[in-house]
Amino acid sequence: MEQVRKDFPALHQTVNGRPLVYLDNAATAQKPEAVIEAIRSYYLNDNSNVHRGVHTLSQRATDAFEAARVKIAGFIGANSPREVIFTKGTTESINLVAYSFGGSLSAGDEILVSEMEHHSNIVPWQLACERTGAVLRVIPVLNEGELDWEAFLALLSKKTRLVAVTHVSNSLGTINPVREIISEAHQRGIPVLLDGAQALPHSTVNVSELDVDFYCFSSHKMFGPTGFGVLFGRERLLDAMPPYQGGGDMIEIVDFSGTTYNSLPHKFEAGTPHIAGAIGLAAALDYVNYVGFEFIENQEKDLLLYATQRLMSIDGVRIVGEAKQKAAVVSFLIGSSHPYDVGTILDKFGIAVRTGHHCTQPLMKRLGIPGTVRASFSFYNTRSEIDQLETAVRQAASMLQ
Amino acid sequence: MSQSDRIDQRAAVLLDEFAMFDDWVDRYQYVIDLGKELTAMDDAYRTDAFKIQGCQSQVWLQPCEEDGLVYFKADSDAQITKGLIAILLRILNHTPAREVAQSDLSFLDSLELKEHLSPTRKNGLDAMIRQIRLYAAAIEAKAIST
Predict the structure, then answer these.
(1) Which residue has the higher pLDDT, B32 or B111?
(2) Residue A180: pLDDT above 50?
(3) Fold designation for A2-30+292-400
(4) Mean pLDDT across chain B, nearest whole number?
(5) Would you say A193 and A211 are in contact if contact means Cβ atoms under 8 Å apart?
(6) Is A359 one of the annotated active-site residues of the chain?
(7) CA distance A158 to A143
């Protein structure tokens, strides 16, 4: 454990005179030295533009960039690197599908999302609906933070063109039954998009085994750099979709009489890409493989149980989100105290948590709360850090109640 | 006593009070307690029109006027925020509108509280101050025109 923590330089600092306790991993994860070094080495030695240059540096950069794609494809179990589109992050991945796949929607068609979606899996679909006259349908969430399964089945119809749901809820940690969702949707010939931003850092995801049609995730929650992410798409679907943005790299021949487009994946990657982002994410995946999901899952399961138990032992603390299957996320409230006040006091203890609606305003409205305090764990967190969280929450409870 | 001295004096008293605390827990507890003493605002003002934009918590501000002096009632759903408003209002309430509109709130910097505030809180506090000044300026303009 100590060795793992040593790999993350940013964990070793004091905040407000106390050792940092970083429990905001669902917002962004810290970066291991190996990732920082890979990015540094790229800029020190190989920096140049990809795909176009004949010179040595450009070829080195292109090789590293495309090797990253192959590695990412392997990591998520894609059939081919052509199915791995590089984006700015989960948000852009979803926007790409909403724009490009969404362009084929007609008035009256339906897109199915859930009440627990992040705004980035709501607003792009609202925009697509505005453009096409399609209708957004919403799977309700039960009090414990699970999807209303009966309602989901009832909402699937001949008009449904896509089911777009989150794999793991960023606010509550709920792990959705994605295999069953995909199976039900596919039986009716409906493709499924999963927002995997909160899932991939916690457990193995294999898009082929899942048989999912689109899978979106961000590098920065996966211990890689910010501003980079991935859209996995089934090749058949991506081939049929029109380009998302126009520019360099995404074309085959440009002529004023008409332009033809590059093949996958480049068709969807206009302009100079985030080369260091791809290289950094590849290094992050190597690091995750080195630590291993067995260790990660065991560690996080222990942290989730321990944190839930410690927080529930405090008078007035209420856990928000009690799904049977949860990732290492604990959302909570202290009595009627505003999450913002709690977060401010926790920060004085050097504890980093997220407060507020977590970009899931419809979910907060459904649960009838202004927001939550969210502690989200990674494998490098410790029980001792949770003890410090407990101390701070007790202090906050005594000050605010 | 000039009016500006009046604001400065109130600020000095407040600074003295805060100087008595040597740790942040007591300082924050005092802010929270000040918030609890804030005069309740009229429910009719607890609407979006009187809500201050730019705060992570909800803040409502009700401008009032009496005998040529302005004062404010306010509320928030967050206790620390409410305490910060209470501090502002303790300094600025019952003061001529012109004075509030042009007030120098540099005392906030010496409160050793602002530096402990997160950027979002600083933005929220700035938004509150801006709104208080706007209301005061509007009241002053109305007084001149009538």
Answers:
(1) B32
(2) yes
(3) Aspartate Aminotransferase, domain 1 (3.90.1150)
(4) 83
(5) no
(6) yes
(7) 29
Other C-beta atoms lying within 10 Å of the C-beta of residue B19: 12
- CB contact (8 A) between residue B121 and residue A344: yes
- Domains along the sequence of chain B with CATH: 3-145 (3.90.1010.10)
Max mean pLDDT range (A6-15, A255-264, B102-111): A6-15
Pick the CATH number of A35-289 from 3.30.70.1660, 3.40.630.30, 1.20.1250.20, 3.40.640.10: 3.40.640.10
End-to-end CA distance of chain A: give it in Å, rounded: 37
What are the boundaries of each domain within chain A?
2-30+292-400, 35-289
Q: Where are the beta strands (DSSP E) in chain B?
A: 59-66, 69-76, 95-96
Q: B115 or A191: which carries more pLDDT confidence?
A: A191
* Facing B29 at nearest CB: one of A16, A340, A399: A399
Question: Is residue B125 a contact partner of residue B77, using CB atoms and an 8 Å limit?
Answer: no
Taking the C-alpha atoms of residue B109 and residue B86, their distance in angstroms, rounded to an integer, is 16
Contact A401, A334 (CB under 8 A): yes
Pick B77's closest partner by Cβ from A355, A370, A400: A370
Amino acid symbol at B129? I
Q: Contact, B128 vs B52, CB < 8 A? A: yes
A-chain residue closest to B82, CA distance: A341
Q: Which member of A84, A359, A386, A389 is catalytic?
A: A359
Note the ipTM here.
0.83
Tokens of A181: 């969702």
- Name the residue in chain A with its Cα closest to that of B29: A399
pLDDT digits (tens, 9 = 90+) for A115-150: 999 999 999 999 999 999 999 999 999 999 999 999
Phi, psi for A374 (deg, rounded to 5): -120, 120
- Cα dist. B37→A172, A360, B34, B83, B89 in Å? 35, 34, 5, 9, 11
Half-sphere exposure of A179 (CA within 13 A, CB side): 5
Residues sharing a CB contact under 8 Å with residue A188, sequence separation 6 or more, in sequence order = A156, A158, A160
